[in-house]
Amino acid sequence: MHTSSLRQNFLAELDHELANTRRVLERVPHDQAEYRPHPKSMTLWQLATHVVNLLAFKTLFLQADGRDFLDPNAPKPGPTPTSHAELLTRFDEYSATLRQALEASDDEQLTYNFRLHRGEQTIFEQPKATAVRLMGLNHSIHHRGQLTVYLRLLDVPVPGLYGPSADEK
């Protein structure tokens, strides 16, 4: 009987989701960067950049024990990408770093807690595996889904993610 580790399962899921996310990002039209479907919505470019920057947060969950939003020395993503090529380059770099961090971890390390906080106020404290899943993968998939709606509203063909999309039938 073959058993798969938590880390191996995460790696398989991560590879699948990163490939899907890259396919969505490849279709984000930079010439529509300021588009927003509603005044309360992020712009297309803010949302695409957020999806990419979340990869760095997932890496942080694996490599650190916590993050204080009030810490001025805490790691922050670089400046907003100014071109489609820059966005995809950052995605590829952050994806590779995240994958390396996950490969370097083990199942025991994934049980250690990660605390996200703002000074003394705890936003969440969860085992690293839970943080990666909830605030990492699920959070990214949520925003990727928003991106696909933006693409649809801009009449950009939407890639199939878990089977063919209406544009691929």
From TrEMBL:
Pfam families documented for this protein: DinB_2
Superkingdom of source: Bacteria
InterPro entries cross-referenced by the UniProt entry: DinB-like (IPR024775), DinB/YfiT-like (IPR034660)
Gene3D superfamilies: dinb family like domain
Protein name, UniProt field: DUF664 domain-containing protein
Lineage: Bacteria, Pseudomonadati, Bacteroidota, Cytophagia, Cytophagales
